Every structure is written in C-alpha cells, then in structure tokens.
Amino acid sequence: MALPLNPAMAATFSPPVPEARRWIEGVSFPADRPLLNVSQAAPVDPPPEALRRALAEAVVSDPALHLYGPVLGMGALREQVAADWSAAYGGQIRPGQVAITQGCNQAFCAVMSTLAGAGDEVILPTPWYFNHKMWLDMQGVRAVPLATGPTLIPEPEAARALIGPRTRAIVLVSPNNPGGVEYPAETLAGFRDLARAAGIALIVDETYRDFDGRDGAPHALFADPGWDEVLIQLYSFSKAYRLTGHRVGAIVAGEARLAEVEKFLDTVAICPSQVGQYAALWGMRHLRDWVAGERAEILARRDAMRAGFARLPGWRLLGCGAYFAYVEHPDPRPSPEFARALVREAGVLTLPGTMFMPEDDPAGLRQLRIAFANIDVPAITILFDRLAALAPGLAPAGARP
Description:
2 domains; 13 strands
C-alpha cells in the first residue's frame, strides 16, 4: 500500500529543467557537433579566481563561517545591500529592510508563505516563471494568469479586472524570465499604484537586474517614501557573481513583513549559508568592474540573438534580454514535440513554451525559451546555423553546422 501523498504536491507538475535533461539520455552527440544546451539560465563557469581565493582563505581562517548565523542574514551583507540599493535606485533602504535567503527561489517561497494560504489567489503574468507557479500549486494557492500579448509586457488595467476578494499579490519579473523583456518604469509604477489601491502586495523579482540593458535605475519604486507598504523585491546573487552552487538570494521589504519571513526561514533553513554570504559580500565590495564586463558580454549575446532571428525566416522573436530569448517557432509540431525533436535533429536542448503557460493556453504550443547565458557569440552563430538547416532552402545544401 502506498504511503499518503499531499494532493497539492501530486497535482504540481514536474520540474521542467530536469525533465528536459532526460530528453538527452541515450542520445550521442559527435565531437564535431556537440550539444548546445540552452535550456537553463545559469552561468556554467566558476566565480572569478580572485573571489575563489578570497573565499578559500576565509573558509580556513574565519571560524564564524562554519557556525549558525542570523536567521535573516549576515549583518554586513544586509548593510551592503541597503547602501548599494539606496544609491542605485535613488531611495532609502535600511539594513532592517533586507533579508538574505538560500537563493531567490527560497526568497519567493518565504515571502509568499507570509502573504497567501490555501484558497487565496496570486496574479502571475504569462508566460510565467515555472517555479513560481509550482510553489503556488504546492500551497493550494491559485495562480491567476495575466496574459501579456505579443509584447510580453503586462498591463495594469488588465490586471485590475483579475483582482478579487482572495487576491493577495501580483508578481512581476523584470528583466523577465522567460520572456527576456525589461518592463518600463511606468509599467512598474502603474502596478505599484494598482496594488496599493487594492491593498495587495507587489512582488518584483529582479534576479537579472545586473544585466538590464538600460543605463541607470530601471524604476523609481524605492524613491516612493511609502514603498515598504506595498513593494517586496526579490534578488539573486547567483547570476552576477556565479554563485549558483552557494544559493544566496535577498528580500527587500518592510521590517514587519521580514519579521514574518523570519519564521519561515528559521523553520526551513535556520540561516543562509555563511560561506555563500561571504562570497556575495566580497563580490559586492570588489567585483563592480568585473560585473560590468559580464553585463557587456551578456548584452553582446543579446544583440547576437536579435540579429540571428532577424535572418531566420518563419521564426518570431517575442522578447530578448538578460539571459533569455522567447520565440514563436514555425514548425508544425507542437512545442513539446518540437523541442524533443530539436535534440535529435539539431543537437539543441531548449524548453517548450508549454512549460511557462497555463495548460489551456494554446500560445505555448508555438513558443520556445532559449537561454543564451552559457553560450558565447560564436556558439550563438552555430545555433542559428543549426536552426536554419532544419528547413529546406534556409541553409546551404549539405551544411552541417
């Protein structure tokens, strides 16, 4: 007899990235035509050597890194985030309004646990980040899809019509995962005003803020004197400093909210990784120019993606920025079938749009997410050569990129 299973967990779909990795099992890729893995948005290289050396020395010499730390995170790191964010956004953020978490996914789970319970509703623009949807499903919280249309940018007025008595929050991701689009400052301000009027939270996930293509602050939400009454920001150190394995994220919110978050974090993890926090703090203090170089490289890859789709007949680029391109494909097969076929036919692993859309939304059947953070510009050229070769007449006869 099988042991009991939480029905909410049973109803939650399987993690998309591990599922996609299973598609390459048993498939061989020749040395001269290796797999291009554009399924996951994560750096594949380690942190820069200077950070690794500093971290190694600290692990040996600082006993505190091996002990429990404060539940809401290392004081020095919270102070650094508050100071840097205040300068970057032109607002006033106090260290007590910052919490450090075991990655940005945990930040989302912690915040959402303080906002919504079973039977409540949270508005998610589509295409949505699948882990956000998964957590809501696990908690019995209904994710209310907000369609974004061909621009992939949500409209506050469209969201207004979806707010009901059980709505607890609106979640925005900018730069967007999976769409790559950067939400205009006026769009974010409009959602802030809507959330404030409705008495709900506005959660803005800025995991990819370090790779925003715009100069200066992407929004003025923190310049609002009462920002902490409505706004909750999420962030990840994983992308900027290549700390994916160390799991370091952050929440910026009102102190009363973080007092509730502390209950969740103490129960789930007790404290975030001391070693990871040290690495994040060292990176913030010493790697500003290095991060600027990483941003320039990602923007160059973004430009290469845009140029590639401009010369690829039948494909439609819906959004491109940060780590992602989100596209409509011309293949007659639905995207889950087409994505699997790409592994065999082109040596490309990507994710179908159905992993980011409600089951009853047909748009996902024509869409793919391509994560280009771990392929450089030459590899992007190869990617487009392979995609072009899928259709007769789009590549030279006999081409085998």
